[in-house]
Design goal:
Blueprint lengths: L1 E5 L5 E7 L2 H4 L5 H15 L58 H17 L3 E4 L9 H11 L6 E5 L4 H7 L5 E5 L5 H6 L2 E5 L3 H4 L3
Parallel strand pairs: 1-3, 3-6, 4-5, 4-6
Antiparallel strand pairs: 1-2
Protein name: Large ribosomal subunit protein uL4
Keywords: Ribonucleoprotein, Ribosomal protein, RNA-binding, rRNA-binding
Subunit structure: Part of the 50S ribosomal subunit.
């Protein structure tokens, strides 16, 4: 699959690059994508939720009424969850939501995500660029030139570039990562995936 290389002004440089069919042209495995996205979202959960149960409630331990003869249900503790102010029955407890996935499955999921975006013509290849200093306005100019100012975009760099990263950090709709940090969720969450030329070699090996 050949794709034209654009410059930061959105103009065709006249060069084309070959995107590997093993990464951008595979048959999409929906279940692998589902599992990888599920794991990504699960790993982001803090799991610090907690509700007090009856053993943790402060209150009297006196039996609140006699066992028989009241005409109502028997009750032994004011801390029971059936009473107002009582403990929560089967409430949430702190837990870890993360789970393990095989490396092979995650590779299939990432390739499926990239193939999905490629099939929908949402992949752009841009020549490498840099800023002398972090400057959000300069990054916005790049987005406007590429027609991405109102779209969620994912910029994939070949290696860490602090100036480019800091220039995009304040923008809600733009995100910058390196090819080593590429994830199924990030790829599918973007309207457009912008690959810098230097990132292609690493992406072809994921």
């Amino acid at each position: 699959m050949k794709v034209s290389v654009l410059d930061i002004h959105g103009k065709d440089t006249g060069r084309k690059v070959e995107l590997s069919e093993d990464v951008f042209g595979v048959e999409v495995n929906d279940h692998a994508v589902y599992l990888d996205v599920k794991q990504h979202l699960a790993n982001k959960r803090q799991g610090t939720h907690k509700a007090k149960e009856r053993a943790e409630i402060t209150g009297s331990t006196r039996k609140i009424k006699k066992q028989k003869g009241t005409g109502t249900a028997r009750a032994g503790s004011i801390k029971s969850g059936v009473f107002r102010g009582g403990g929560r029955m089967f409430g949430p407890r702190p837990r870890n939501y993360s789970f393990k996935l095989n490396k092979g499955l995650k590779k299939v999921a990432r390739r499926s995500a990239l193939s999905t975006q490629a099939n929908e013509k949402n992949i752009l290849v841009v020549e490498d660029f840099n800023f002398e200093v972090p400057n959000t306005k300069n990054f916005i100019s790049v987005l406007q030139a590429l027609g991405l100012e109102n779209k969620k975009s994912l910029f994939v760099l070949g290696e860490s570039n602090n100036n480019v990263y800091l220039s995009s950090r304040n923008l809600k709709r733009a995100k910058t990562i390196t090819n080593s940090g590429l994830s199924t969720y990030e790829v599918l969450n973007a309207n457009k995936v912008v690959l810098l030329e230097s990132s292609l070699e690493g992406i072809n090996q994921i």
